[in-house]
Amino acid sequence: MLAWRPRPLGHTPTMRIVLLNQFYPPDLAPTGHYLHDVARALVAAGHDVTVVASQRAYGGGGGFAADERVDGVRVRRLAGTGFGRGDLAGKLADYLGYYLQLAGVLARGERPDLVVALTTPPYLGLLAKWTAQLRGARHAHWVMDIYPDVMRAHGMLDGAAYRALQKLASHALGGAGVVLTLAPGMAAGLRAYTDPRTPVEWVPLWTPEGLEPWPAGQNVPLRAERGWSAERLVLLYSGNLGLGHRFEEFLAAAAALGANGPRWAFAGAGRARPRIERFIAEQPALPVELLDNVPAERLREHLCSADVHLMSLEPSWEGTLLPSKLQASLAVGRPVLYVGDPRGDLARWIAESGAGWVVAPGASAELLAALAAAADPHARAARADAALRARVGRFGRAENIARAAQLLVG
């Protein structure tokens, strides 16, 4: 069998390409925005590109247009429930509604040349492979989360059930033109599910469009609106408050530093949010607050309103997914304080770039030392400069979008 080699994107024959993901702009879910970047690149290369997503929003509700063309990409959105991420039953109902409608659309639509699946909902790749076999097309996969490894890390299954779902994952990826993922650790994990002849490639996600540093010397209006003084250190966790992330170290540090310590803000939704709500209710004097997601038009302002961004990942989840929060932080030039396995991909990227501080889980003394360093404006400025350099290096938009699009079309 000939070795697979990606062709230059501009020289690939024009194809009819169908891209699958539950969420797509204007929804705020990051996966949809990254998919749109690649979809636009494919359109620019001359391909006929259709995205099939849901009309419902990541956080619940929604009601986006059922059929429209955005930047040359045809976007078909399917009706369904909009329970969001608040509880498992609602999330599963949203998944099921999307699956069932998508299967019907793929069976009846025009024959594609290539079907590309992301991983929301889990095992979406099964529909991509089924469609490819039914319609005589090729299939490829852009793996943002590795299932069933995420489910095992979540404590949802093990043993025979885990092994059965491993076989299902191997079946979905079997015969793929390429399996693309986000980092070396994830690529290594995917090798357990792919044929040795299947190319497994990785491209880091890139800095989001429209996110830029706030002009030097200018106050961020949203910071004043929130009552955050210019003199106080503000630490912001922004994004999914999921069970794969750690909050214990941050909350323990907030308690240790007391009412006169830095201000801690946690913005987003997810199953860990009640844990933070309880902490605030039990210790109302501490400078800890919960915020809702902000509208897209204020995202840059929101991210720039804090001095340091917080990130975390449970070690058991390492290599199963890769949060995209780092790229947003780099884009606005904010240093990152990360709690996670120092050997993981995120930790290594932060350490190598110098864009923040990495603290192992449970290392409370090291976390307090990092917070003391973050309180120094000169130390923050040096890390912020490193963040801005990283945004155009490893995480550069144009290069990584082009590389991802090229790999997917083959």
What does this structure look like?
By secondary structure, the chain is α/β, with parallel strands linked by helices. The protein has two domains: 9-206 and 396-409, 3-Layer(aba) Sandwich (Rossmann fold), CATH 3.40.50.2000; 221-391, Glycogen Phosphorylase B (Rossmann fold, 3-Layer(aba) Sandwich), CATH 3.40.50.2000. Helix content is 39%, strand content 16%. The protein is built from 15 helices and 14 strands. The chain has helices spanning 30-44, 88-108, 124-135, 149-153, 159-173, 184-190, 221-225, 248-257, 273-282, 299-304, 325-331, 345-353, 364-374, 377-391, 397-409; strands at residues 16-20, 48-54, 67-70, 73-78, 114-117, 138-142, 179-181, 200-202, 234-238, 263-267, 288-291, 308-312, 336-339, 356-359. The strands form two sheets. It has an eight-stranded mixed sheet with strand order 3-4-2-1-5-6-7-8, with helices on both faces. Strands 11-10-9-12-13-14 form a six-stranded parallel sheet, sandwiched between helices. Helix 6 links the parallel strand 7 (179-181) and strand 8 (200-202). The longest helix has 21 residues, at 88-108. The chain starts with 15 loop residues before the first strand and ends with a helix.
User: What is the rounded Rg?
Assistant: 21 Å
Q: Indicate the overall shape.
A: globular
Q: Under the CATH scheme, which class of the largest domain?
A: Alpha Beta
CATH superfamily placement of the largest domain: Glycogen Phosphorylase B
Average pLDDT for all residues: 93
Provide the CATH architecture of the largest domain.
Answer: 3-Layer(aba) Sandwich
Q: What percent of residues adopt helix (DSSP H or I)? A: 25-40%
Give the termini separation: 15 Å
Number of helices: 15
Whole-number total of structural domains: 2
State the order of secondary-structure elements, H for helix, E for strand.
EHEEEHEHEHHEHEHEHEHEHEHEHEHHH
| CATH fold naming of the largest domain | Rossmann fold
Strand order of the largest sheet: 3-4-2-1-5-6-7-8
The assigned structural class equals alpha/beta
Largest sheet: 8 strands, mixed
- How many beta strands in the DSSP annotation? 14
Question: What portion of residues belong to β-strands?
Answer: 15-25%
Low-confidence stretches: 1-7
